[in-house]
Design brief:
Blueprint: E1 2-4, E2 32-43, E3 46-47, E4 53-70, E5 73-89, E6 102-116, E7 120-133, E8 142-153, E9 158-169, E10 172-184, E11 189-192, E12 205-210, E13 215-221, E14 224-229, E15 240-255, E16 260-277, E17 283-289, E18 292-302
Antiparallel strand pairs: 1-5, 2-4, 2-18, 3-4, 4-5, 5-6, 6-7, 7-8, 8-9, 9-10, 10-11, 11-12, 12-13, 13-15, 14-15, 15-16, 16-17, 16-18
Length: about 300
């Protein structure tokens, strides 16, 4: 028997996965700029401990605008749309409760940066997201919150920031620490954050090596989580599903021009877990997932 279901938006949620991008490696661009990012992710099969297996593919589009206000201050707006297709196959002890297929996330976000003193920087990023399977109630699928952090420039090559994220909605509230790093170790090596911190989790960490002006290779990872509302008419009416895990990846980036970059990813999802809850957020069951391979690419254009 084959049924549809959902697995790990983890990579690019992750990606938001891979709206994962090598931000620190890209050109600075004009004082005000638009950026459009298209991402595609595919996973291999992930075996469930209680039987059966899952896989998914994910398509993500992000449109962002950033405006410089001078003296290091800026503000920005972003719109994200992510579509997931999930397949669940094989016998399982979880039965029809695992049924879900198409999931759509739509989010809006803002950002604001302001220098503090000679070396400090304050960063705020509120956001609002709707995450729902087909047939789920829109009003019950909202998740709101934000990230706040303070960064300190220790030198021209090293900036470190500390902060926290707080998000609530769908019968759950989460808070987590955020570590932001921008370290140009030398002319070739650097360390930074591959993901935007947000509802999916902290920003993650990666180490990158510049092979040339056009090519860069990197490896990294970070904990990700994705939570969404289920179909009102499904086997778990108005329930909630959540998938968590640690995606590790290797990235190869090609700077096609000053305005266009392309990222290629290969990776693996580790320590995966899927949880099902009823409409009030009471856990019905959870199951561990075996490692699953991940392949992805992103294309980003700046205007």
């Amino acid at each position: 028997m084959v049924m549809k279901a959902r697995l790990l938006p983890i990579l690019l949620s992750f990606l938001p996965i891979l709206s994962v991008q090598a931000q620190n490696a890209r050109p600075a661009g004009p004082a005000s700029a638009w950026k459009v990012t298209l991402s595609q992710v595919w996973s291999g099969d992930s075996d469930l401990d209680q039987g059966g297996r899952m896989r998914f593919d994910q398509t993500a589009l992000r449109v962002g605008f950033q405006q410089s206000l001078g003296r290091g201050q800026s503000w920005g707006l972003g719109l994200d749309a992510v579509h997931y297709n999930y397949d669940f196959a094989g016998p399982t002890d979880l039965g029809q409760q695992m049924y879900w297929n198409k999931v759509n996330d739509i989010g809006v976000s803002a950002s604001w940066r302001r220098p503090v003193g000679e070396r400090g920087m304050v960063f705020l990023a509120p956001s609002l997201t709707v995450a729902r399977a087909n047939g789920a109630d829109w009003g019950d699928a909202l998740r709101a919150g934000g990230v706040a952090s303070y960064g300190l420039r220790f030198s021209d090559s090293l900036t470190v920031g500390f902060g926290a994220g707080f998000f609530t909605g769908m019968e759950d509230t989460k808070a987590f620490p955020v570590l932001l790093v921008s370290w140009q170790i030398n002319e070739k090596w650097r360390m930074g954050n591959p993901f935007r911190p947000g509802p999916a989790g902290p920003a993650g960490l990666e180490v990158a090596y510049a092979m040339s002006e056009e090519w860069e290779v990197a490896f990294g990872g970070g904990w990700r989580s994705h939570r969404f509302r289920l179909d009102e008419d499904g086997p778990n009416p108005g329930g909630i599903a959540e998938v968590e895990g640690f995606p590790g990846f290797v990235r190869l980036t090609w700077s096609a021009s000053e305005m266009v970059t392309v990222d290629f990813y290969g990776g693996m999802l580790f320590a995966g877990e899927v949880t099902m809850e009823d409409e009030d957020g009471n856990e019905l069951f959870s199951d561990d997932m075996d490692r699953a391979p991940l392949v992805a690419f992103t294309v980003q254009a700046a205007f």
